[in-house]
Amino acid sequence: MSLAAPAFRPRTTRSLAIVASNRETSSALPGAASIERLRVGSDEYHVPVMESEIIELFKGLSEGVVIDATLGGAGHTLALLKAAPTLRVIGIDRDPEARAEAARKLAGFEGRYLIVDATFADIEEVVVRSADFINGAPIVAVLMDLGVSSHQLDDATRGFSFRANAPLDMRMDPTKGVTAAEFIATVDQHEFARLLRQNGETRFAGAIAKIVIERQPQTTDELTEAVERAVPMAARRRGHVATRVFQALRIVVNAEEQQLDLGLRGAIHVLGGGGILAVIAYHSGEDRVVKSYFHELATGGCTCPSHLPCVCGAVPVATVFKASAQLATAEEIERNPRARSARLRIARKVVS
User: Fold this and answer.
1) What pLDDT, in 10s, does the model give residues 212-260?
2) CATH class of domain segment(s) 173-253
3) N or C, which end of the chain has less CB nearby within 10 Å?
């Protein structure tokens, strides 16, 4: 199906639409050398993490459809379409700028990809609404590359980063939902402190929550200043003092915890027998959720004592490739420092 095909019209109010626009976007951060290094290359919308590992994993799959549930700038999808001519890809993304960039990048592969306006929590609905494109083929793999993209971080207008001043937005889809500033205006101080602790900001969570709620920041600089005021210089750990606060706000504004749970369960449901689910996580909270869910798949949810045989009747749903997460290589981290925190986990659905 080409990009000119009509948009899907689901029964829900969400539009799971094929992207037809080709709007390119560009933005640059101030010219600090360290930031430029993070960008890897000024012509790159987003540098796909662990690309070679994903392509090696997927390219040997039998003919079918892969779902790139976090399409972004289509880095993984483009590499896969080039490497595996028997595969087609459904790319899901809620960010209109990402979908436009993906459409530009995938020109020339018409008929082998479909771009859908949705989130990975909608994956089951996307499959239903993409029946014409799928045309009876099995879903052989699902890729979920979690978190925020390089472009979203580097675009100073989006409010994801403390590196440049911008309105405190942080929405992955800037047309829907509440901004980070609006969330701060309504959240209870104790609930905000709980969210910060949940994202690793333990010792000063209460102090940060108090001053942020009091100051009601409207920009990234104002939020950063509030956090710096709450955390004494002597107590600041390695890295930027506001990192975990920005992360916590981004996660809650985009409902990432709920999205991840729904996405993982939807992914395993739509996969055909023998299909692969690959998830790349970037912080410990996400990775714990993925690890726990993969354990549930591998054990079938067995509740029997680990030192005794299973008698509860649990049936494994998938096999997990390895207990520990796979990390990016040192060479990749040198090229793309954002790969440093990547954790790849892989499961294969049991053939029933």
Assistant:
1) 999 999 999 999 999 999 988 877 776 688 888 999 999 999 988 899 9
2) mainly alpha
3) C
Residues of each domain in the chain carrying CATH 1.10.150.170 = 173-253
According to CATH, where is 3.40.50.150 located in the chain?
33-151+256-349
Q: Running DSSP on this structure, what letter comes out for residue 275?
A: -
pLDDT in tens, 57-91: 998 898 999 999 999 989 999 999 999 999 999 99
- Give the C-alpha distances (Å, rounded to integers) separating 12 from 120, 178, 222, 256: 15, 20, 38, 20
CA distance 47 to 298: 32
Q: How far apart are CA 343 and CA 53, in angstroms?
A: 12
Q: Give 8's Cβ-side CA count (13 Å radius).
A: 25
Query: If we measure between CA atoms, which residue out of 278, 280, 288 comes closest to residue 257?
Result: 288
**pTM as predicted:** 0.80
